[in-house]
Amino acid sequence: MEYLFQIALIVLPAAAVIFTAVFFMRKTSEREVISMRMELKKERQTFFLPNRVDAYQRAILLMERIHPNSLLMRLMNPGLPCAAFQVKLLEAIREEYEHNIAQQMYISPAGWELVKKAKEETVKIINLAGKQMDATSNAMDLSSKIFEIVAEVGTLPTEIAVEILKKEVQELF
Q1: Could you give the CA distance from residue 51 to residue 72 in angstroms, rounded to a whole number?
Q2: Residue 21: exposure state from Cβ atoms within 10 A (0-12, 13-18, ≥19)
Q3: Helix 139-153 and helix 68-75: axis angle, to 10°?
Q4: 64-102 burial string, b = 16+ CB within 10 Å, else e?
Q5: Structure pTM?
Q6: How far is the CA of 61 from the CAs of 15, 21, 64, 99, 115, in angstroms?
Q7: Tens digits of per-residue pLDDT, 49-94?
Q8: Which of 55, 112, 127, 134 is least enclosed, having the fewest CB within 10 Å?
């Protein structure tokens, strides 16, 4: 019996020391894990934030460049037949979009969806105007018709997309 008592006097304090050590080591490792996660999050933000801001800038620039008014002013060629000018406008939109398609990686899914819809709506406006032209129409006639449609629409999808993208980028800070 005394033998068991002596073993208990040795084992119980040793167990208490081991338990205490494990407890504090576990707490320390939890703190270290939390600290490492915070540090990784900061590093990720440091790395991705500039890329995200650049992506939003490029998406806004895309919206500005495919805005019907901007397209018409930039690509105007008065001597061009209507159909050829329409194709030129649509090609410019497609090229701008394809040039910036990788930006969706850094932009929110909802933001990129707005960019896509704005592009599609701009294409629809140009095609709608093109359908209303006759065979003898030229680029000036098509431009006038596009300006009429834009005036009827009011706030264009590209303008709405720009405002929402600006709000999203402001939320990053």
Answers
A1: 31
A2: exposed
A3: 160
A4: ebbbbeebbeeeeeeebbbeebbebbbebbeebbeebee
A5: 0.73
A6: 67, 59, 5, 12, 11
A7: 888 899 999 999 999 999 999 999 999 999 899 999 999 999 999 9
A8: 134
Calpha distance 158→150 (Å, rounded): 11
Distance from the first to the final alpha carbon of the chain? 71
**pLDDT value of residue 7:** 76
d(CA 55, CA 103): 5
**Could you give the C-alpha distances from 51 to 47, 62, 79, 163, 172, in angstroms and in order?**
7, 16, 42, 20, 12
Residue with tokens 């939003």: 56
Question: What secondary structure letter does DSSP report for 107?
Answer: S
| Helices 109-131 and 68-75, axial angle in degrees (round to 10) | 60
Are 149 and 169 contacting, i.e. CB atoms less than 8 angstroms apart?
no
Q: Residue 156's closest CA among 72, 95, 33, 92?
A: 72
